[in-house]
Specification:
- The protein has six helices and eight strands.
- The strands form two sheets. A four-stranded antiparallel beta sheet has the order 1-8-3-6. Strands 2-7-4-5 form a four-stranded antiparallel beta sheet, with no helix packed on it.
- It has a single domain, classed as Jelly Rolls (Sandwich).
- By secondary structure, it is of the alpha+beta class.
- This is CRP-like cAMP-binding protein.
- It comes from Hydrogenophaga palleronii.
Length: about 200
């Protein structure tokens, strides 16, 4: 799609969709659709919509220790991962630290990578398989196919992803406000313990 090429540049290499979770009645597809609708993923989707999306996803496995997403990566950003089994550690590099900080540990029913799938920007955190992981991957090529073949479901998917990102933004804003209040309280206490000399 020219629109996607214009927004995101070069596409991720094509995956073989013959292995995709295409059989709506299969146990694997049902499990993936159920987890796609989990509160940690995209619960706004109906069961039918989730099964439709799952048809376009690629089943994938990662061994423990595999870096699935690397912070700062700006080339291979066109995919998101739905965790079906196992755990993934989400880490972020901070300017003042040598070692990355663990931001979260996610398990079945969690999505990672959806922000870069939407905007094509560099990855904001690293995601490493803590255990062997079984997952379903939606890449940009599959998303384009979903848009072409099932535009209503694709629109609902993108709306659900946008809502998820908005919730995360609000949560981060709240955390920043709490952190700001904490810093101000500590500053006030320091000033009481060590008053500034009057000139």
């Amino acid at each position: 799609m020219a629109f996607f090429d214009m927004l995101f540049g070069a596409r991720r290499p094509s995956r073989n969709r013959d292995n995709a979770l295409q059989v709506a009645g299969s146990a694997g597809a049902q499990e993936a659709a159920y987890l796609l609708r989990a509160p940690t993923a995209l619960m706004q989707l109906s069961e039918v919509e989730a099964l439709t999306v799952v048809r376009f996803m690629q089943p994938t496995r990662y061994r423990a220790g595999t870096t699935i997403i690397r912070q700062g990566e700006s080339i291979d950003t066109g995919f998101m991962v739905l965790v079906l089994e196992g755990e993934i550690t989400v880490e972020s590099l901070m300017p003042s630290r040598v070692e990355p900080v663990t931001v979260n540990v996610v398990g079945p029913g969690s999505l990672i990578g959806e922000m870069s799938l939407v905007d094509g920007a560099a990855r904001s955190a690293s995601c490493t398989a803590s255990t062997d992981v079984r997952c379903a991957v939606l890449d940009r090529e599959a998303l384009e196919a979903l848009i072409a073949e099932q535009p209503a479901t694709a629109a609902k998917l993108m709306t659900a992803v946008a809502q998820r990102l908005a919730e995360r933004l609000r949560d981060n804003r709240h955390k920043l406000q709490v952190y700001s209040q904490l810093v101000q309280t500590m500053q006030d206490e320091i000033e009481q313990l060590m008053p500034t000399p009057q000139g």
